[in-house]
Amino acid sequence: MPGQRAVISRFADAPPEAIEACLSLEAQPVPDLASLGPRDVLVAVRSAAVGWVDLLMTSGKYQHLPTPPYCPGLEYAGEVAWTGAEVDATKLSPGTKVLVDGFTAGPRSSGAYQAYGGFASWAVAPVEAVLPVPGTLSLDQAANLLGNYETAFHCLVTRGRLKAEETVLIHGASGSTGLAAVHVAKLVGARVIATGRSQEKLAVVKAQGADEVLAIGGPGGVRPFRDEVKALTGGEGVDVVYDGVGGDVSVESFRCVKFGARFLVVGWAATPMGARPLPTNLIMMKGLDVLGCPTIISSVKDPKSRPPRLAQVLAWAAAGKISPLVSRTFPLDQVKEAMRAKWKGEAVGGIVLHP
Fold first, then answer.
1. For residue 64, which of 31, 104, 24 has the smallest C-alpha distance?
2. Predicted confidence (pLDDT) per residue in 29-45, tens digit
3. DSSP string, 238-284
4. CB neighbours of residue 270 within 10 Å
C-alpha cells in the first residue's frame, strides 16, 4: 500500500525556518523488493521519535549530515514487512515488532541506508540495524530507546563515572534525553536533583524518579540556584553535573559542585555558553573534571565502546527497568506541528510521529 514520507528540501539557517519553508510531505510507494539486497529488511514504520538531532540536522548544524533532499527521522520502530533471503527467519519475520538502530541506518548513517528516515510509511535497513523490541515496550517507547538511553549511559556512567550514593544535578530533565538521564542515574543508585523551567513538567520528572526538583527559570533567564543545591547536599555540593543546556545554567552550576566533581557537557540547547566565559578559577580551585560527552563521535573513534553500552540498555529494557515516557503523539501529516512542539519544549519526555 502506498504511503507518505516527509522531506527536507534544503538546509535552513535555523530549525524554525526549515520547518516552515523546507519541510513537506510527498507520496511514498512501497520500495521495489527486487531492488533490495539479501540482508535487507523492509519495515512498515509505526512510530518515529521526533528528536533534538532531527531539528539540528535541518539547519546543517549537526556533525553527521545527509545530503538534501532527505527524509528525517533518526529513530523509528514498526513491523517487519519483508526480509531478504539471508535474514534469519527465526529472529526476524513479517509481523515481528522491531526498532531500528539510528547509528547504522537512517539520516545519521552513511551509505545507501541514509535515504530511509523514520518520518515515512516505509523504511529499509540492514539486518544488523533491526532489533526486536525488548521486553514489553510499546512501539512508541521503542522509538525513544537507543538514542536517549545510550546518551545518558555514555555521559553518566562511561564519562561521568557516576556511582551509587553519589548525587547528580541533571539539567533539562524534562526532555527526552534528560529524563533518560534521570532513569539511568536511579538505576545506578545515585541521588538525582533535576532542574527545569516548568513546575508542571518537573512534577512529572519527580514522578518519574527524581529525588528533588528545582525550577530555575527567572525573569529574563536563569535565576541563581546554588544555595538550594548546597542546602540539598548538606552544604557539600553535587558529585556530578549533567548539563545539556549550557549558557547561564552552566556558569551557575560550577558553583554547585563539591571538590573533585565531574562536569558533563552533554549539549548546548541555550547556545554554547553565550558571551560568558567558563569560570576557570572555579574549575581549578574545585579540582573539577570538565568532560565533553559526544556519544556518537566517541563510538566512531572507539567502536568497541558501544556494544557493552547497547547491551546494558537493551537488558534493562528487556527486564522492564527502562520505560521511556512518551507524552505527545502526532500523525505524519502533522509533522510540522510535531517538530514545532519539540523545538519549543512543549512535551515531557518523547514526541512521536505515527506514519
1. 104
2. 999 999 999 999 999 99
3. EEEEEESS-THHHHHHTTSEEEEEEEEE---TT-SSTTPPP-HHHHH
4. 19
Region of 237 (left: φ > 0; alpha: ψ -120 to 50; beta: rest) is left
CA distance 149 to 182: 10
Virtual torsion, Cα 67, 72, 78, 82, nearest 10 deg: -30
Cell of 52: 533534538
In degrees, rounded to 5, the angle at the alpha carbon of residue 301 between the alpha carbons of residues 300 and 305 is 80
End-to-end CA distance of the chain: 13
Quote the pTM value. Answer: 0.94
The β-bridge relationship of strands 289-292 and 212-215 is: unpaired
Residue type (1 letter), 85? A
Q: Which of 247, 237, 228 is nearest to 285 (CA)?
A: 237
316 and 341 Cβ atoms separated by less than 8 Å:
no
Residue 148 Cα distances to 74, 143, 213, 258, angstroms? 12, 10, 20, 27
Burial of 225 (0-12, 13-18, 19+ CB in 10 A): buried
Confidence at 220, pLDDT banded by 50, 70, 90: confident
